[in-house]
Every structure is written in structure tokens, then in C-alpha cells.
Write a structure and sequence with these properties.
The chain is mostly beta strands. The chain has no helices and eleven strands. Strands 1, 2, 3, 4, 5, 6, 7, 8, 9, 10 and 11 form an eleven-stranded antiparallel beta sheet that branches.
């Protein structure tokens, strides 16, 4: 059981954003969440994703990119699935839908978002959360039609820092 205010951190290498215009691969991505509740027999664990960032990003053709996360913080809900595994539901935390702006050397400028997505949690030591082909939509004013209307996000975040053992228990 984790008390409210516990910080959980995760890192990913080779986080990828794929659209019809380009595939952008980031060397490193970092996420930080803070628990708000401990959950229990009839309560969901809730928290806030306070930080999400991407560094060392470029297209598969070597064009340098920046990926800027938008609308943080995000609201997070953890649910048990089976064994020690669960899901992490991520949705707006009040500032808008989770999203990112992708700018590549002045050639590509696109913003994608999604109002709610659910990621599997592999309860373990270290725990892992996987974003696998998470579908994102281009925002209404999020770039040119060349950006396409959809993109997908792939990354696996492994728990680091003070809390690496995460096991999701039945509610």
C-alpha cells in the first residue's frame, strides 16, 4: 500500500511517435506520478501524472525534433486486472487532454492528443507500464493536414527511483 503523496517515476528508451508524415524516436522519456489515494477493497488508487517529457528526439531520417508535452498534470487511475498486474487509465487533469506537440527542424509541426487512454501495468520489481500503439488524434489547430489525423505512441516505462516494486492488488 502506498500512502498519498508517494512519488513513482519511470523511464523509457526509444519512445516512438509515428504519423503518416514521419516516425520520431526519442532516446529518453521520463514520467513522474504522485499518488492521491491508497485505494482499498472498494476504492480505486488515484494519482496525478505531474511530469512527462521526451529528450533526444529525431526522425528515422535523422532530422532533429522536439516533443513538448501539453496539458499536464494528468489524472491517473489504477485498476487491478489479475495476479499482480493492472491498468493505468490516464485522462485530463483539468488543463485539457493529454497530448504532445512535435516539431522537427521547421519541417514538421503537429500536435496530437487523446482524452483517455489505458495502459497495462506489469506488476513486478521493477514494474513496467507499456504504451503500445496508443492512438492519438491531431488537435483541430495542431498542424497542417500533412500531419495526418492520427498518430500512435509506443514506449515502455520501467519504474526507477525510490519505488520500483509495484504490485497491483485486487480492489
Amino acid at each position: 500500500m502506498y500512502e498519498p503523496g508517494m512519488i513513482v517515476e519511470g523511464t523509457a528508451t526509444n519512445a516512438t511517435l509515428t504519423s503518416n508524415l514521419a516516425t520520431v524516436i526519442c532516446d529518453h522519456s521520463f514520467a513522474e506520478a504522485e499518488t492521491q489515494t491508497t485505494g482499498g477493497a472498494s476504492a480505486t488508487v488515484t494519482g496525478t501524472i505531474k511530469v512527462l517529457n521526451f529528450t533526444g528526439c529525431e526522425t528515422t531520417t535523422g532530422l532533429g525534433c522536439t516533443v513538448s508535452v501539453e496539458n499536464t498534470p494528468y489524472h491517473a487511475l489504477v485498476h487491478w486486472v489479475s495476479g499482480d498486474d493492472g491498468t493505468l487509465a490516464v485522462k485530463t487533469g483539468g488543463g485539457g487532454s493529454p497530448g504532445a506537440a512535435v516539431v522537427c527542424a521547421g519541417v514538421m509541426s503537429c500536435t496530437f492528443e487523446r482524452s483517455l487512454f489505458t495502459l497495462p501495468i506489469d506488476g513486478s520489481n521493477p514494474a513496467a507500464v507499456a504504451a503500445s500503439k496508443v492512438s492519438l488524434e491531431r488537435t483541430p489547430f495542431g498542424g497542417t493536414p500533412l500531419c495526418g489525423i492520427q498518430a500512435s505512441w509506443d514506449a515502455t516505462y520501467t519504474a526507477v527511483g525510490g519505488i520500483t516494486s509495484i504490485f497491483v492488488l485486487k480492489e
